[in-house]
Amino acid sequence: MIHSLFLINHSGDIFLEKHWKSVISHSVCDYFFEAKEKAVDPEDVPPVLQTPHHYLITVHRGKLFFLSVVQTEVPPLFVIEFLHRVADTFQDYFGECSESVIKDNVVTVYELLEEMLDNGFPLATESNVLKELIRPPTILRSVVNTLTGSSNVGDTLPTGQLSTIPWRRADVKYTNNEAYFDVIEEIDAILDKSGTTVFAEIQGVIEASVRLTGMPDLTLSFMNPRLLDDVSFHPCVRFKRWESERTLSFIPPDGNFTLMNYHVSSQNPVAIPVYVKQSISFFESGPCGRLDITIGPKQTMGKTVEALMVKIHMPKAVLSANLTATQGNYTYDLPNKVLVWDIGKLNPQKLPNLKGILSLQAGAPKPEDNPSLNIDLRIQQVAISGLKVSRLEMFGEKYKPFKGVKYVTKAGKFQVRT
Amino acid sequence: FLHDDLKEMLDSNKDSLKLEAMKRIVAMIARGKNASDLFPAVVKNVACKNIEVKKLVYVYLVRYAEEQQDLALLSISTFQRGLKDPNQLIRASALRVLSSIRVTIIVPIMMLAIKEAASDMSPYVRKTAAHAIPKLYSLDPEQKDQLIEVIEKLLADKTTLVAGSVVMAFEEVCPERIDLIHKNYRKLCNLLIDVEEWGQVVIINMLTRYARTQFLNPNMNESLLEEGNDKTFYGSDDDEDEEEEEEKKSEAPMPKRKPYVMDPDHRLLLRNTKPLLQSRNAAVVMAVAQLYFHLAPKVEVGVIAKALVRLLRSHSEVQYVVLQNVASMTIKRRGMFEPYLKSFYIRSTDPTQIKVLKLEVLTNLANETNISTILREFQTYIKSMDKDFVAATIQAIGRCATNIGEVRDTCLNGLVQLLSNRDELVVAESVVVIKKLLQMQPEKHSDIIKHMAKLTDNIQVPMARASILWLIGEYCEHVPKIAPDVLRKMAKSFTNEEDIVKLQIINLAAKTCVYSSIGKYLNQDYKYVLNLAKYDQNYDIRDRARFIRQLIVPTEKSGALSKYAKKLFLALKPAPVLESPFKDRDHFQLGSLSHLLNAKAGGYQELPDWPEAAPDPSVRNVEVKDSVPEWTKCSSREKRKEKKVEKPFYSDSEGESGPTESADSESDSASGSEIGSGVVGSVSGTASEESEEGSESEEEEEEEEEDEKDKKMTMKKELKKPVQENPREDDMRLTLSSLFPVEPAPSPQVTPLNSFLSNSLATDLEGLSLSDAVLSPATLSPCSALKSYELLHRIRGEGLSVEYCFSRQPFSPDANMVAVQMQFTNNATSETKNLHMEEVKLQSGMRVKEFPEIELLPAGETATAVMGIDFCDSTQAANFQLCTHTRKFFVSIQPPVGELMRPVFLTENEFKKEQGERF
Which of B29, B421, B739 lies at the smallest CB-CB distance from A164? Predict the structure, then answer.
């Protein structure tokens, strides 16, 4: 299916290539470079390109392009999802997925790719299985290995490969048994000029960090599962239990993983935590415009709004911004035309305001388009939908684990149109 | 030489140096640098003890073997040895590398290795064999027939590990052999949820195609009325008309067709794939979505919308693919996505390609009720900074206007306003769209045409200029004074125009000329234009000029045609239909590469049309031979039983009648199997016992179902009670059995300390049996308590109960046989006579030595007998009938792996010697 993989950095250098079948010359990437030239933004390079003899399927992750070459029919999402899984694995192994890290660990990367695909078909993609085959690099281990000559490569078949729970390895042991769950909700919203909600919804995710000995069988139940409208699960979750009892029952993978993604039912009105009063106008006469933005709390469930940040993509003609902020700092990134106002904590008594003059390129016509505001924020200790975990139980093991649930609300794609 | 230092390191005795060298070489390969001159030095290390060195050598070999075929052959013997290794990982990786070396000369060796691996004990090795099939096929397509045999064999495999890989091989080697799927169809459906994600995608796509050949169209009996209700606004009209016609046609010959009943197997597929819509893997969700789109009854397709909308939160590449598919779906099934209209609203931060696709979906979703909301959205989009996106929005507005009559004027006014926009691209796009809209009602809009005529002074975009000129020419009757004016201006600039504009100038000239029936004052302009065109560089333009001259200017020869010039040029032309580029894309299987590119990709398998009449459904019936040891039923019910047994165990044998029940059992098998394997992981020794328990519980479960059906059997009720009292435990046991459908998975735990025993125990029974001769074993008497298994329950046996155990003693009549000690207990009130065995059914190679007949077993008494079975080192069950003077019971004995062993005593030195030789 996947014939070859090329890793390409932003400046267009191919710094790693791997072939699972006959070698394909890297000149095939020229078609991609051509498309990349045409696109204004790397995001705009079509993920699927057709060349005379091959198809190129590309994903863009962390300033790198993962370009795969396929020759025959294959579901494009299959390849895309797999390439993202590869990037996830690198992130998992090396802490980040960047050119320098991949170059530093090129042998491990190669060994990983070798295990992940056989003849272009995914073989082992579960991080637990991979970690038994190829141990992640640590400083201590590399020292030990050079001294003893032992290797990072396992010589027995990982237990996960044969069992029906490939995500968990056997013989997990911890002295401190802990299971933490983070319920993270994101508000996706579009507000129009007047502040009316055009569209709003809440997307949530439960990230888990489970370090438990043995084969624990966990059950997580909610106070108000009815809120959840659409869900997707890690393969460990027993779907039928969810269907019948609305509880999450699972044998967890070892370590960090995403337990579930959910979408909150659209019947419930979405609480919008902040309101924005804004006016951005450009004058017909004279090369300038005026900007005035105030942000205030709206429905915050009695909590403080933190890490408030406003990002504005300005029209091309805007050269500089001369503004005063009553709170926080602002920066104007000229090449990208992005104005960022980092506010921090929102104080309801003293509303933050940003006001001033935008200067335009001389002679340029007045921009007709108004930029939109992208808001970023965080509210700790609350899930804005009101979702609550009621219980976490463990079966199958005798010890008492340490359990914890944390809630946080963030702004997702939160946009105010002007 | 270049890499002398590396060669030296490779030749050294130290593993650490070799490793360092190999790492550097692999880094070179990764960077795309040539390291082929090191081949001889590297290949020597193929048998290196250090596993990491070995693996890196494999990497090197696979990369360069093709170029250095002769040298590569040196390594083959190492892999052949590896194929016989007791460690399954080594067997598998040997096969992997061997099959990845693209050297034609070893094709026969590969073929042999694949065939052997396909019947390996370890499912992991069998999986590797499945992966090797397409490799060999691409190396030598001549092997197809033999490979199909292997595929057929592996398709019958009942482990989830193999299922995905073998279907992948099937798709690459013989996708046309749909007949191979019949027997495995239900099994694949049932295994699906436990197969790994990537396998799920492949299986679902294949089953979609399969279902299209085997089942009837679930939407065929839809009434015309419903169809009318659901009609989409445009585009699909013709479609549906055709469909309707087709329906009429097909219904005509059999007017009183039976109401459509869905094949239970069709239902099974739909039901078993549905939970996968909740998968975290976008590819799986998409696969299920396309399956529902292509196979489900209209009313059920809706469930996929929510899942697809969810994927829009994922990476932008995922969004891109999903939106393309949603766009295709919205054309046929608009109603499905209407509730999610707002999820397709566009954010200024979306990449342009995503914006354009969302726009496409929004346009497809527009209807009378939501058009005002959509147009309001479009208004904000027009102000965007992203001009390509604005252009696409204008096109979208045009499409909405053509499709929804009520808003046509509003849209047109809006677009006319855009004509004064500062951005030329916006204006140009508006002109093009307005032109199309005007064609629908030109008489009402002569003012707009006049307005546009003025634009020719400013607008430079060729497409827009051409559109304006065409409009003026076409409707010169509505603007009789302006047309000649424009022509005069254009005649001046003719030489500097683009080709499409030039063509339209000629057109305009011809039309004004014809309209004014060769007005005299026009003559000059028109002749001037034609003369310029005559000497144009572009032959298209020269041709056009010549053609038009002949038509319009009457000469002796062409007189006849010029009479019709007006009819030719000013004929009423149908307004263009603005339709989605995604119309009719769904003749490609959704989710496929071909669909995305709207062009057939290599290896694409057409999605067949539904058959007129369903092929025989009985081809999917499976005769359960030895995997279901539950034949112990009274003979009076045997016939009925036979029928039932044909269906696979875990599919709901009640069919449609008992959906809830079957759903339960499915859920349990999903959850329980996880629990089960957990047990295997930690207490491997007991795994086989549990599998035994599992098959018992199967019997019970089966019986439970029977009971529900057959209320007359009051006696059975007794048994049912305890089962019900403890449903959880029962569930769990049931599911354990699905974990080990045929043979218990080999114990995955291999600790180095007892590697000799456990290795052979788990993976390489063959090895042990071969070694018997060498070892000259001194058998020990068994010291541990023996575990006994139930062969026949007293209730089923009508009072006779039989237990058996593996006595772990040599079976004296035949050394190759395993001794099985049976204990018969007569719990009935009457005596049992003539206990003996009949009709032994065995896998090839297996042999049985029957126990001597027990002539009489009085009530309450117990008797023992010993029989011998040669299991041929497999874990296949031995099936036979246990007969009394009145009754016959089907029973089966399946050995746990551990019981096939004979204890052997070795001194430490002997052990080490063996270990050294064998590992």
Answer: B739
Token readout for B16 is 């650490």
How would residue A341 be classed by pLDDT, with cut points 50, 70 and 90? Answer: very high
Enter the tokens of residue B337: 């996505």
Angle between helices B144-155 and B160-173 (to 10 degrees): 150
Of A59, A81, A149, the CB nearest to B16: A149
Gap between the Cα atoms of B43 and B74, Å rounded:
8
CA distance linking residue B594 with residue A337, whole number of Å? 39
Phi, psi values for residue A158, rounded to 5°: -60, 140
**Residue keyed to tokens 């078993």:** B272
When mean pLDDT is compared over A355-364, A368-377, B275-284, B861-870, the highest value belongs to B275-284
> Which ranges of chain B have pLDDT less than 50?
223-256, 626-784
Q: What is the mean pLDDT of residues A276-288?
A: 79
pLDDT at A321: 85
What average pLDDT does the segment A21-49 reach?
Answer: 88
Closest CA to A72 of B809, B713, B592, B756: B592
pLDDT of residue A207: 94
Average pLDDT, chain A: 86
Inter-chain CB proximity B310 and A244 less than 8 Å? no
- Least Cα distance to B55 among A38, A115, A118, A105 occurs for A115
Angle at A133 (CA atoms; ends A131, A135), nearest 5 degrees: 50
Q: Quick one: which of B167, B104, B102, B103 has its CA closest to B131?
A: B167
Which chain B residue has its CA at the smallest distance from A251's CA? B674
Nearest to B238 by CA among B577, B523, B656, B502: B577
Distances from the Cα of B439 to the Cαs of B110, B234, B391, B401, B470, in angstroms? 67, 17, 20, 12, 11
Interface of A with B in 271-310 (CB under 8 A): none
Cβ contact B671–A46 (<8 Å): no
Cβ proximity of B164 and B196 under 8 Å: yes
pLDDT in tens, A53-91: 899 999 999 889 999 999 999 999 999 999 999 999 999
- Alpha helices by DSSP H, listed for B780-885, are none
Secondary structure, 3-state, B219-238: CCCCCHHHHHHCCCCCCHHH
B748, A170 Cβ separation under 8 angstroms: yes
- The predicted pLDDT at position B697 comes to 46
Q: How many angstroms separate the CA atoms of B46 and B48, rounded?
A: 6
CA distance linking residue A290 with residue A273, whole number of Å? 26
DSSP string, B332-360: H-HHHHGGGGGGG---TTS-HHHHHHHHH
Question: In A, which residues are within 8 Å of B345 by CB distance?
Answer: 190, 198-199
Q: Work out whether strand A255-264 and strand A197-211 pair parallel, antiparallel, or are unpaired.
A: antiparallel
Q: What is the pTM of this model?
A: 0.72
**For residue B565, how far is the Cα from the chain centroid?**
59
